[in-house]
Each structure stands twice: as structure tokens, then as C-alpha cells.
Request: fold
Amino acid sequence: MNRITTKLRETSQTAIALSLLAVNLVRLLARQAAYATNFAPLLALIGKTLVKMKQLLSPNRPIQAYWGIN
Reply:
């Protein structure tokens, strides 16, 4: 029962972290869209956020394996 409780806690913490990342990404998208000048930093931020979300979902698996990079 302890392992189940621990796993549920880890899962809920991951869900909270992902939702916070999503909220921050939407805020940054809105801010960048208001200026609408240079989207390169925004695209880099989106890429970094996606990588971070993937690492949160499976911290024991290298990111290269997920993207198929050898």
C-alpha cells in the first residue's frame, strides 16, 4: 500500500508541475504575441518546455530515446 501511495503522490506532483509549465507557457505566448516582433526566442522556449515536460513524465529515461535520437 505504501508503494501505491508513493506512486500516486509522484503522479500528482508531475501533473501539478506540467500544469504550471503549461500556464507559464501560455502567459509567455500571450506576452510575445502582444509584441509580435521576434518569435525565435519563443520557439526556443517552447522546445525547452516540451523537453522539460518529457523529462518530468519519465525522469529515468533519456530524452534522446524519446525523440529517436541516436
Notes: The chain is about 80% helix and 0% strand.
